[in-house]
Design a protein that fits this description.
The protein is an all-alpha fold and 253 residues long. Helices cover 67% and strands 0% of the residues. Helix 1 packs antiparallel against helix 4. The longest helix is centred in the first third of the chain and has 33 residues. The protein starts with a helix and ends in a 5-residue tail after the last helix.
Length: 253
């Protein structure tokens, strides 16, 4: 019975991860297509390998020795699962669109590769969205890992924890350009140089107060700092919102 519940919960969290990731990928690919940008083959290969590895470690979770009196959800269409998917996607949507808008400010409008059928050319937009998409993908594994009382907790799944630590380290190292050869391997463009160009966009955007605040913050703190701040915001907000959803549907004692 313990193994049956562990299997059910594992499949439930896999369905949630796939649901959120499909929405995130559809959002990013649509945003890139609208301006003619695209992701590189190496980038997509990296994403596939990371996702496959994390899924493998998710399935290696072991059931607990003691049977919990709490029953797991019996359907992926349960209202808590659906609400969780929607809330997670909204968090990723806001952060990804913020990074996308900031990155577009540094695009060269005369870049010949910015056509739907053009060849791949690394630029600020596809590099920034790749890192943000990969971060959102990894966050879905962290957020949707069920753990106790049906299976071992995330910290007890040593292989999963090590894989997540390595992935987060690589993503933030790439975002901060700690090791440029690694960025070149993943087809990431160099970070833009902040200066008067960004400040002029912030002062003349005319696209609303929220956009002006975002652009002004980026012009002051720098593109690198702003992007890392959005990455941290995406991670912590996704975890926090999932905890709120769980509390909303927690069984009353």
């Amino acid at each position: 019975l313990q193994r049956g519940r562990c299997t059910l919960v594992t499949m439930m969290q896999i369905d949630k991860i796939l649901g959120v990731n499909c929405l995130v990928n559809a959002l990013v690919l649509s945003s890139l297509h609208l301006v003619g940008a695209k992701q590189g083959d190496t980038q997509l290969t990296v994403v596939g390998l990371v996702v496959a590895t994390l899924f493998f470690f998710v399935t290696k979770s072991q059931p607990l020795n003691k049977l919990s009196p709490q029953r797991p959800p019996s359907s992926v269409l349960w209202k808590q699962v659906l609400l969780s998917i929607v809330v997670q996607f909204l968090v990723h949507f806001v952060c990804i669109m913020a990074v996308t808008f900031l990155s577009k400010c540094y695009l060269d409008p005369f870049d010949p590769s910015l056509v739907p059928d053009g060849h791949f050319n690394q630029n600020t937009l596809n590099s920034a969205t790749f890192i943000m998409t990969e971060l959102a993908t990894v966050n879905t594994f962290v957020v949707n890992y069920t753990g106790r009382p049906f299976m071992e907790a995330l910290r007890e799944n040593k292989l999963m924890v090590r894989a997540l630590q390595i992935t987060y380290g690589v993503l933030f190292a790439s975002a901060l350009e700690v090791f440029p050869p690694m960025n070149d391997l993943m087809q990431l463009a160099p970070l833009p140089v902040d200066g008067d160009f960004m400040q002029n966009i912030a002062s003349n955007s005319g696209l609303g107060s929220h956009i002006d605040v975002l652009l002004s913050s980026s012009s002051i703190a720098g593109f690198k700092t702003t992007r890392c701040s959005l990455m941290l915001a995406d991670t912590f907000l996704a975890v926090a919102m999932e905890k709120i959803v769980i509390k909303m549907f927690a069984p009353k004692k």
